Every structure is written in C-alpha cells, then in structure tokens.
C-alpha cells in the first residue's frame, strides 16, 4: 500500500465531477471579479452608454486609470530617485532596526517568562501580555506623545527632547512584535524534548548554559517559519508610519498618486514591491532552514583529494568455512581457515562432527 493511498482517499467519479464543477465555478467568479475591477477603474462600468459586451465598453477610457499616461510617471527616473527609492530605504531601515530589536526583546522576555524566580517571571509575563494587547497604532501614537506627557506629568519644558517619526515607528514595532516573538521563543524552548536538558545536566551544564547552548539554538531552528512570518508582518506594519508622517514607501507612493492622479497604478507598483520584499525574506528563511537541517549530516558522496568521487566498497564479512579447507593437509596439518591460522593434527582416530570430515 502506497503512502498516497494511506494519507489520501482517491476521489470517486462523483467526487471528481464535483471538484471539476467547483474549479470551473471558482475560475468564473475570479474572471468576473477581474472584469468588475477593470471596468470600475476604467470608468465604464456605471458610466457606459454601450452594452456590456460591446467592444467600446472594454476599450481603454481616456479618463480612466488604465491609460498609458497614468503609468508614464513610473518610467521617469525622477519618480524613483525622488519618491520611491527614498521611501523604500526608510521602510527597510525601520523594518530591519525593529526586527533586530524585536528578536532581542523576544529572547529576553521569552526566557524571563520561564525563569524559576517569580520576581522575574511575573513582570516579564506582564510586559509581554500588556504590549500584545495594545494595538500597534496606539503604541506609535503614545511614543510620539511622550514629550507632551513629560510636560504635563513631570513639568519638563516642551522642546527638551523630541521623538522623531522613525523612533516612534521603530519603538511601536519593537514592543508589539517583540512581545509576539517572546511567546514564539517560549513555545519553541518548551517543545524541545526533555532529554536534551537532562543530558546537559548529566554532563554538568548549568541552567544558563543549557538554555543558551542547547535549548535556544534548537528552538530557533524549529520555530524559524513562525519567526519569519512575524518578521513579514513587521515589515508590512511599517506602513503604519504613514499616520505619523514617516516618509516610508506607502507615503511616497501616496505623494506620487496625489501629484499624478494615478491611484491605481501607484497602488499596484507599491504592492508589487512589498510582495517582492516579503517573498525574498521567505525564500531566505527557507534556505536558512534547509541549511540548518543539513548541518552535521555526513556526505553521501565522498571525494578524493583531487575532487574526483571515490567508489565506496562494502567491507566483506567473515567468510563461511569451506568444506575443502577442513581436509587434512599433507604433513598432518589442516589447511588455513579464514583467519589464516593452522591447527596441527593430533593423529587421533576421533571422528569430526560432520560425516564429510570423517577420516578413513
């Protein structure tokens, strides 16, 4: 029985027909959705004077969003150098900074939640649950409002310190995503088999050494998909910096769309850039996970010093004793066996165990 037949029941004739109907229906609905999207932004869905199936209805409307003039700004170098590239740089700066800080935050507070000391475990759990329960946008707003709070509560003069939009975005992303990553790390450590900790204790490792040298590396490896998924969320959440006038990628495309009146082309190009970045991050995580899984695995193709493959020969086991080798040799000694040793003939008339070795 194959693994496929065990894990999946082959559909019968009715099930195959039903699946075919569902597939065709889904494709039809998807095509209808694309048609509505095209006609809607072409301004011929509700403002048309011709029939729905008239070619004039599907022709590009000069006042719609699909004309070449709406896409032409993205063919000019100044659009990329003045808007897109600076916005992309700000987005990547905020995302990478927040990602590093969030991972450190998650490790510290995730380990703190597993501490044996209550005065570490309880505050760490309170911090994690507090920042997980607050919306990210509120964290960004609260960070921006720190100078006002300092003036109203502590009478610190206004202008003593300022919180920039970049600091507010990075702080909000770090606190929220770091709290989520703390639970990810904690779950990964708890998922490591207990035998690993017991073996570390058996060789004299302290709990700190066990945590940092044994448990955390295995937890990070096993939870890599969840960590990368949260980092992708962090990258996308950096677009919330638009609310506090942070010049990130979405705000740059918004400025282009406002100036050129091409909202749909700008949104499509912006979405494509975000998709490419997130797919690249996911592919990097897959490569890293495969590399970690292959670490320590012996090579299946040994090579010689010059790089040529070496044929691996099986080592022969002990050979079966040959009947003819047990015949007495001339001079009263038996022939050498598999080990090469010879046994002298005592000259006794005692029969051997096998009838074929019996002396006359």
From TrEMBL:
<keyword id="KW-0812">Transmembrane</keyword>
<dbReference type="InterPro" id="IPR010065">
    <property type="entry name" value="AA_ABC_transptr_permease_3TM"/>
</dbReference>
<feature type="transmembrane region" description="Helical">
    <location>
        <begin position="92"/>
        <end position="112"/>
    </location>
</feature>
<dbReference type="InterPro" id="IPR043429">
    <property type="entry name" value="ArtM/GltK/GlnP/TcyL/YhdX-like"/>
</dbReference>
<comment type="similarity">
    <text>Belongs to the binding-protein-dependent transport system permease family.</text>
</comment>
<feature type="region of interest" description="Disordered">
    <location>
        <begin position="293"/>
        <end position="360"/>
    </location>
</feature>
<feature type="transmembrane region" description="Helical">
    <location>
        <begin position="20"/>
        <end position="41"/>
    </location>
</feature>
<feature type="compositionally biased region" description="Low complexity">
    <location>
        <begin position="302"/>
        <end position="344"/>
    </location>
</feature>
<feature type="transmembrane region" description="Helical">
    <location>
        <begin position="212"/>
        <end position="235"/>
    </location>
</feature>
<feature type="transmembrane region" description="Helical">
    <location>
        <begin position="263"/>
        <end position="288"/>
    </location>
</feature>
<dbReference type="Pfam" id="PF00528">
    <property type="entry name" value="BPD_transp_1"/>
</dbReference>
<dbReference type="InterPro" id="IPR000515">
    <property type="entry name" value="MetI-like"/>
</dbReference>
<keyword id="KW-0813">Transport</keyword>
<keyword id="KW-1133">Transmembrane helix</keyword>
<feature type="transmembrane region" description="Helical">
    <location>
        <begin position="133"/>
        <end position="154"/>
    </location>
</feature>
<feature type="transmembrane region" description="Helical">
    <location>
        <begin position="166"/>
        <end position="192"/>
    </location>
</feature>
<keyword id="KW-0472">Membrane</keyword>
<dbReference type="InterPro" id="IPR035906">
    <property type="entry name" value="MetI-like_sf"/>
</dbReference>
<keyword id="KW-1003">Cell membrane</keyword>
<feature type="domain" description="ABC transmembrane type-1">
    <location>
        <begin position="88"/>
        <end position="285"/>
    </location>
</feature>
<protein>
    <submittedName>
        <fullName>ABC transporter permease subunit</fullName>
    </submittedName>
</protein>
């Amino acid at each position: 029985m194959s693994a496929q037949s065990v894990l999946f029941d082959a559909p019968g004739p009715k099930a195959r027909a039903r699946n075919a109907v569902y597939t065709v229906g889904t494709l039809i609905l998807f095509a209808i959705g694309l048609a509505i999207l095209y006609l809607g932004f072409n301004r011929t869905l509700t403002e048309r004077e011709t029939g729905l199936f008239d070619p004039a209805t599907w022709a590009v409307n000069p006042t719609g969003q699909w004309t070449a003039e709406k896409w032409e700004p993205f063919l000019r170098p100044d659009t990329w150098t003045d808007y897109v590239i600076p916005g992309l740089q700000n987005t990547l700066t905020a995302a990478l900074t927040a990602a590093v800080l969030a991972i450190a935050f998650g490790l510290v507070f995730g380990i703190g939640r597993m501490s044996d000391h209550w005065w570490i475990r309880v505050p760490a759990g309170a911090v994690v649950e507090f920042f997980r329960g607050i919306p990210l946008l509120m964290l960004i707003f609260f960070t921006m409002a720190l100078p006002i709070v300092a003036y109203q509560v502590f009478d610190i003069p206004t202008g003593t310190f300022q919180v920039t939009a970049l600091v507010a975005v990075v702080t909000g992303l770090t606190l929220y995503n770091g709290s989520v990553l703390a639970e990810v790390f904690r779950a990964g450590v708890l998922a490591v088999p207990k035998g690993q900790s017991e073996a570390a204790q058996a060789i004299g490792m302290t709990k700190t050494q066990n945590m940092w040298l044994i448990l955390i590396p295995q937890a990070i490896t096993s939870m890599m998909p969840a960590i990368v998924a949260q980092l992708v969320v962090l990258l996308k959440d950096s677009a919330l910096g638009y609310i506090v006038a942070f010049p990130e990628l979405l705000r740059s495309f918004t400025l282009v769309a406002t100036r050129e009146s091409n909202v749909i082309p700008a949104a499509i190009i912006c979405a494509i850039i975000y998709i490419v970045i997130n797919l690249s991050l996911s592919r990097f995580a897959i490569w890293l996970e495969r590399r970690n899984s292959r670490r320590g695995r012996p090579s299946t193709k040994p090579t010689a010093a010059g790089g040529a493959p070496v044929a691996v020969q099986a080592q022969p086991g002990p050979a079966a004793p040959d009947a003819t080798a047990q015949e007495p040799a001339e001079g009263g000694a038996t022939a050498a066996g598999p080990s090469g040793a010879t046994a002298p003939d005592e000259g006794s008339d005692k029969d051997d165990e096998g009838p074929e070795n019996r002396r006359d």
